[in-house]
Amino acid sequence: MIDDKNDAIIVNGQPMTSTNTKMNHSVNDDDDDILFTEFKSIQIKKSLQQNDRLALKTLACSNGGFVTNELRVKVWCRLANVDDNDNVFNDISSNIQRNDNYRQVILDVERSLKRFPPSVQEVQRIAYQDKLTEIIIRILDHNPDMYYYQGYHDVCLTFLLVMNEQQAFHLINTISRSHLRFYMERTMNTTSNLLEIIYLIIRDEDNELYDYLIRSDVGTIFSLSWVITWFSHVLNDLDDILRLFDLFISTHYLMPIYMTVAILMWKKSDILCIDCDMASMHKFLTAIPNDQHSPLPIDRLVLDTLELSIRYPPEDTLERQKQIETNALNNGNDNNHNNNNNGGGGRSLLRISTQFLRGNIFSMAFIGFISVIVYQFYYDHLQ
Amino acid sequence: MSSKDDEYDYLFKVVLIGDSGVGKSNLLSRFTRNEFNLESKSTIGVEFATRSIQVDNKTIKAQIWDTAGQERYRAITSAYYRGAVGALLVYDIAKHLTYENVERWLKELRDHADQNIVIMLVGNKSDLRHLRAVPTDEARAFAERNNLSFIETSALDSTNVEAAFQQILTEIYRIVSQKQIRNDNADDQSSPDNITPVTILPTDNAERKKNNCCQV
């Protein structure tokens, strides 16, 4: 259910006006932008009315995404099946300071000042930050199997900036379980493994770029803050971030990783000119999202990302990555076995002897069993 | 596209570690760009910046890696201790817990960094005099017991930031240059009895190498 009353964003009684999403399409004329926004808005409203989820997801991928904040709140809630009537938010006990993550959350929320648009006054900002802390802690209380990570606050703040706290709580709760759950495990192991998919795809997509990045030894950590915050920690423009959220909410949870590949491909010629060492490459790559001189063409990159996801379907890619992990694990175990065999000769000899004896006891028992049957057969029929 | 500030005699990699919110990123920006940002964001993963200083007429380029403070990131960030010749272990003088956790950070270094890494304990936010929770003498005594150098800094008002980096880089330089003298003496077959034996190596020596792989 979408509640129209919740469209205005009210903090301390003051509504924050939502801005139209910036268009990145090829025609830059203002009139065309307005026409395009109106045209797309009509399509989005129609799809909402008809509850056509497929059409909505398709609209997320074309230029401008869900175009206005009013519309995207409605569509996000619809796509995530968020029910505003659910009172979980009010029901949870309110002593947020007792949560183990409280200190870390406060530290990160306090350092989120840069995320607020200049139009937000200080009083409003503080109110937002208080609400943000409360939402995060309540979600963690509500999901004891999920763990807070620095950067989760950036994702949550993005939602809170365009909707009321009730909607934000339900939507973040749903998205956390559907799209962010691997990043919220107890350790970062799964996250690290998922980031390796970047290289899995680039290797097939562009061998030259793959070789160069591998040779630089830059690894995947440059993309960590891109992927786990859906780029909200690294992009400067809130409209760009919201437009990416349109895509990520509507599609598979691997899409931020595909987007990372699309960005690397987009920057290929620049990357090949960077000194081929880890430090230089790390520095160049981490600076890409907020490069003022060469802003990323978001709509174009969304299309590239989609193309990649068609060429390398996410579920197949996950299967391939899992296979690679299993092989690596087996190789590791084999090596461990070898090491153990080399290192503890006496113990391994004992183990082999035991295995041999155990195997032979069964063999001898089997031979004995067969002998008894043969003897019985001979005795019964030939005597 | 590449940075060209590459006339240096030594390149030393230094890591900034310590609990979340102690001011590691601002120490880095104060030293490398003379900036303090009240609006600085949490560090997710690792970031780095460089600055060159002069010691004994040698140009030393410091490559300083700033790491995320939250515990769950340690498994990822500890890979970046590899090759580091120095570590600034930072705590917040106004938050006792960040000082208590110094032991755990030392263990991280013991487990993942080179055993000869030069470590400096840094009590940051010394401008917060009225909120001080860690007495200077206590921290200094702890540093002495653990063979660490010690300094208190304020990235906000610049106090001792320059001194902290100068001190640790100079210390690394002394060790590295002694090592080189020792090697030279060994080459000359002479006995280096008066030289402290060290095994620390510079991250990169003065070859000003450029692996320019540009293919376009």
Automatic annotation (TrEMBL), chain A:
PROSITE patterns: TBC_RABGAP (PS50086)
Record keywords: GTPase activation, Membrane, Transmembrane, Transmembrane helix
InterPro entries: Rab-GAP-TBC_dom (IPR000195), Rab-GAP_TBC_sf (IPR035969), TBC20/Gyp8-like (IPR045913)
Residue intervals passing through the bilayer: 212-232, 244-266, 356-378
Gene3D superfamilies, per the entry: 1.10.8.1310, Ypt/Rab-GAP domain of gyp1p, domain 3 (1.10.472.80)
Keyword Transmembrane helix: yes
GO MF: GTPase activator activity
Protein's UniProt keywords contain Transmembrane: yes
Domain named Rab-GAP TBC: residues: 66-252
Gene Ontology CC: endoplasmic reticulum membrane
Pfam family, one: RabGAP-TBC
GO biological process, one term: endoplasmic reticulum to Golgi vesicle-mediated transport
Protein name: Rab-GAP TBC domain-containing protein
From TrEMBL, chain B:
SUPFAM superfamilies reported for this sequence: P-loop containing nucleoside triphosphate hydrolases (SSF52540)
UniProt protein name: Ras- protein Rab-11A
GO CC annotations on file: recycling endosome membrane
Record organism: Dermatophagoides farinae (American house dust mite)
PROSITE patterns hit by this protein: RAB, RAS, RHO
A GO molecular-function descriptor: GTP binding
Membrane topology summary: Lipid-anchor
Keywords: GTP-binding, Lipoprotein, Membrane, Nucleotide-binding, Prenylation
Family: Belongs to the small GTPase superfamily. Rab family.
Annotated CDD domains: Rab11_like
Annotated localization: Recycling endosome membrane
Matches recorded under PANTHER family: DRAB11-RELATED
Pfam family, one: Ras
TM helices/strands, residue ranges: none
